[in-house]
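User: Show me a protein chain along with its predicted structure.
Assistant: Here is one chain, sequence first, then C-alpha cells.
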Amino acid sequence: MPGVSARRLSHEERRQLAVNLTRVVTLYRSILDAYIIEFFTDNLWGTLPCSWQEALDGLNPPQLATLLLGMPREGEVARYRSVWPLTLLALKSTAYALAFTRTPGFQTPSEFLENPSQSSRLTAPFRKHVRPKKQHEIRRLGEGHLSRFMSLGLGLMVKSIEGDQRLVERAQRLDQELLQTLEKEEKRNPKVVQTGPRHPPHHVVRWVDPTTLCEELLLPLETSPQSGARLLLTGLHACGDLSVALLRHFSCCPEVVALASVGCCYMKLSDPGGYPLSQWVAGLPGYELPYRLREGACHALEEYAERLQKAGPSLRTHCYRAALETVIRCAQPELRRPGVQGIPRVHELKIEEYVQRGLQRVGLDPHLPLNVAALQAHQAQENRVVAFFSLALLLAPLVETLILLDRLLYLQEQGFHAELLPIFSPELSPRNLVLVATKGPLGEALSLLETEDS
C-alpha cells in the first residue's frame, strides 16, 4: 500500500500532516467507530451514502482487495465495473496519501526464500521456540527472544523487564537451554561458533508505570569507573503504555542515549495519558481517538487483503457474529457486544448452528426458537459485511499514523532527533514501523536499519 515517508517530511510538514489526519478521521469517524458485529442491529450498511452502496454492493472479496484496498494480485490490473462516486475515490486516495508507508526498503525477505518457516540468517539454536514472524523481527531489529539474541548472539549486556513472573521464569529456562546448546555446538565445531564469555539477559520482574520513572530500568549492569552508563532502550512490540514509558524514560534520563521502539496494542493506551503526548496534537480539534478507533488500528491490513484475494469461507465469520448479535439482543436487550469464545471451524457450520453455539458461549439458552429465514437473509449479505469491514480497514492506518506521528512530534518538542520507518515485512509483521531516536546524529543508526543485511 502506498503512503508517505516520515523521513521526507520537515517538522512543519509533520505538523500539517497531523492537522490533515485529524480532519479526515473526524470526517469518517462513523465508519472507524462502528463495531462490525452491529452490522445488522445498527444497520451499518444504511449509514453509507447511497452512491457508495451502489458501487460496493455485489463486489466479491478479490474485487474489494483490488479496487478498494488497492492490493491486487501480482500482475493484475484494476478494472472497475462501474464509475465510482468521487467521494469514495477521494476517500481511497486520501487513505493512501496520508498514512505512513508500511513498505520497507526491501521486498520479500530473502531469509525465507529457501524455507518460509525458517530464517536463514538465524542459526538453528536461535530459531528454536521462535515463530517465523518473530525470527524476522529479531533479525531485523537485533521480548524475551529479542533480548536473548542481543545478549547471547551479539554479546551485549541486556536487561529485560517483564511484569509477569511466569513469563520471566520461562524466559530464564529458555536462556539456559540456549546456553547449553551453544556450549555443545562450540565443542563440536569451535571454528564456527563464536567463543568468549556469554552473558544471558538479566531478567527483572517489574511493571513499568508510564507516568513515573523506573529506577530498576536505568540501573546499569556494569559499574565501570572509567565511563558513565550509556543505555539503549528497545521495545519490540511494546504493548500499550509500555511504548509511552520508553519515550518518557528516553526524554528524562541522561543515561539513555538512544531509543528503538515498535509499538502495538494501541487500544491499551491510558486515556488520558498515553495519547496524545505532543502539545501540537493535543491542541488540534478532533484529535481524540476513542478505544474502538485505536483497536481498529491494530488490524493486519495486508493479511486481510490476502484473505480477500483467496475468498475463503473464513470471511463469513463477521457476518455470522453480526447475525448472532441480533438474536442476543432479542433474547436479552441489555446484553450488548458480549465476548464470544472462539467457535471452531465456523465456516463449516450452518448459520443456525453457529448461533446456537454462540448463545451457549454467552450464557443464553442455545435452544431458543430461531427465525432461520431471517438468519439466512443476513447470511445473504455476507459480501456487504466484508465490504464495510474493508472500508474500516482502509481507514485504520490513518489512526496508527496519527498515534505514531504524535510520538514523533513529542520527541521533537523535547529537542531530540527522531524518525520513523518501516523495518519489517508487513505481511509477516503488521506493526512494522520502528520509532528511532537519539541524543545525537541519527544518520548512521537509520542507514543500518534500512539495509536488509544490517
